[in-house]
Amino acid sequence: MIWDDKKQQPEYHVQYHEPIKSLSFSNDMYIVGKEASIMCMTLDHKPQIEIQTCINQKGIHAVSYGQEFCVATTHRQPGYFQLTWFKQAEIGFQTLKSIEGKAHDNAIVCMALNH
């Protein structure tokens, strides 16, 4: 459940067939961290993209903000990351580009982005 402090009531209820490990927002998209993937969804619950990750017990990811924004995730291989840029389109979001890289020899345990 996603709570709106200003309205003092629930705004959204997100439910999947597997446990949700983390949840974040950017523009009109919410990003759901699951154990082996990150799901990017519009606020009307339409899937935009599912990014496969390595086993990610905490659903680690990071999101930047702005007209064009980035979602950082772990890669399918431990120690690697993936950055995916999005832009709001007329309907939903458009994926602009995606890059991958090595960060560590061991699994990534924390991620952060700035604008």
Kindly describe this structure.
With 115 residues, the chain is mainly β. Helix content is 0%, strand content 50%. It has one domain (12-102). The protein has strands spanning 2-4, 9-12, 22-26, 29-33, 37-42, 47-52, 61-63, 68-74, 80-88, 93-102. The strands form 3 sheets. Strands 3-4-5-6 form a 4-stranded antiparallel sheet, with no helix packed on it. It is globular. The model has no long low-confidence stretch (mean pLDDT 86).
Defining traits:
four-stranded antiparallel β-sheet, single chain, 115 residues, mainly beta
Q: Provide the structure class.
A: mainly beta
First-to-last CA distance: 27 Å
Instruction: Tally the beta strands.
Output: 10
Taking the sheet with the most strands, its summary is: 4 strands, antiparallel
Average pLDDT works out at 86
Summed up, the helix count is: 0
Radius of gyration: 14 Å
Q: Roughly what percent helix?
A: under 10%
Topology:
Blueprint lengths: L1 E3 L4 E4 L9 E5 L2 E5 L3 E6 L4 E6 L8 E3 L4 E7 L5 E9 L4 E10 L13
Antiparallel strand pairs: 1-2, 3-4, 4-5, 5-6, 7-8, 8-9, 9-10
Summarize this structure briefly:
The protein has 115 residues and is mainly β.
